[in-house]
Amino acid sequence: MVYNVTLIPGDGIGPEVTEAARRVLEATGVAFRWDMEKAGADVIDKYGTPLPDSVLGSVRKNKVALKGPITTPVGSGFRSVNVALRKKLDLYACVRPCKTYPGVPSLYKDVDLVVVRENEEDLYVGIEFERGTPEALKLIQLTAETKRGNISEDSGISLKVISETGSRRIVRFAFEYACAYGRKKVTAISKANILKFSDGLFLRVAREVALGYPGIEFEDRLVDNMTMQLVKNPRQFDVIVAPNLYGDILSDLCAGLVGGLGVAPGANVGDEVAVFEPTHGSAPKYSGQNKANPMAVMLSGVMMLRHLGEEDAAGRLEKAIADVIVDGKNVTYDIMPDSASGVGTSQVADAVIEKLAAG
Ligand code: NAD
Questions:
Q1: Res. 124: pLDDT tops 80
Q2: Is 351 in the pocket of ligand 1 (CB under 6 A)?
Q3: Residue 171 to residues 89, 202, 211: CA-CA distances in angstroms?
């Protein structure tokens, strides 16, 4: 069987790390037909958009994609291609496992948790009102008229939107994931003490959904407490389900607990389509230097193999990566013990392929 998979290299370090991942995936013996699709700032001149229809069309057709990071301009410029892709393909669940691999310098041993982040709602709906525009002033007037409060006229406004439907399906996803992967507990994250109508709704729905899964322990935490608890004792957590922004922040925090973004994979999953990509961004300062750690994309590839039902290949690839880490010689700077300089991105791929060949 040959799998048709869309390959989106992305930009910054994306092309280097996805190429390394493509090589090790092929070395498992599973056959792929890659459909290479470009997105991001580099294609705007050609297509008039950073997310051409051909990219969406390819992912919809193949139903599976492996993706590198794509840069989003900070504070101005075009909106995130990554967010748009998740929305247009209805990839409502972002799954980010954080697990300690022996040999990765990290603060903790034996951490094995999964962040399930809602991927489409919350502050990421992208509905914003720029300071001083007639729309912003109208909204400010409405809040005053409806006695919601007085907003200063020089404010910019971004909407935080959380629906019952969106909350129900992400919490259900987290419980179903827990059942499928033998996980014992789900922790729901919110700031429901302050944000009663958005996070409050998320939490109420989470509590309702939890009643349908009596075999899985359920608890909830306020996000500020959660950050402290994670740093103090991450081993107490198993599956964490969170609205979009908290999920984004907590998944980087959890990546930090297990040794950093270089070993933090991820998947964006919908009912029809799944796009596998690392938690990390495009790390522009390392772009084109053969320096970035490709293991987060490789481990996203392991998740992709499991999604395709290729459990044996997934296990072999994960073990090969783990073995390279334990050896400690062919790893990049970020997980090199004793802060030595580390090898290049492509050398890591060579070493993983060698381990796969050795069985
Ligand atoms: P980043 O993840 O790119 O980098 C954070 C830190 O981690 C940097 O020090 C970086 O050098 C390091 N790092 C990241 N990946 C690494 C790797 N594979 N190996 C070794 N070190 C690595 O986050 P940022 O700097 O906040 O964002 C840079 C750009 O990436 C921004 O434009 C942002 O919007 C974008 N971004 C994209 C995605 C995505 O495509 N899904 C995700 C996050 C950020």
A1: yes
A2: no
A3: 19, 9, 12
**From the CA of 231, how far away is ligand 1's center (Å)?**
21
Question: How sure is the predictor about 341, in pLDDT bands with cuts at 50, 70 and 90?
Answer: confident
The CA distances from residue 153 to 123, 142, 158, 205, in Å, are 21, 12, 14, 35
Specify the DSSP class assigned to residue 122.
B
CATH topology for 1-99+266-359 is Isopropylmalate Dehydrogenase (3.40.718)
Going from N- to C-terminal start, the domains of the chain cover 1-99+266-359, 107-112+162-257, 125-159
Q: Give distance in angstroms: CA of 356 to centre of ligand 1.
A: 28
Under the banding of pLDDT at 50, 70 and 90, the label for residue 63 is: very high
* 177 close to 116: Cβ distance less than 8 angstroms: yes
Class of domain 107-112+162-257: alpha beta
Cβ(267) to ligand 1 under 6 A?
A: no
Q: Rounded to the nearest 5°, which phi and psi values hold at 339?
A: 45, 40
Taking a C-beta distance cutoff of 8 angstroms, is the pair 5, 32 a contact? yes
pTM: 0.95
Is 70 exceeded by the pLDDT of residue 279? yes
Residues of the chain with pLDDT > 70, as a percent, come to 99
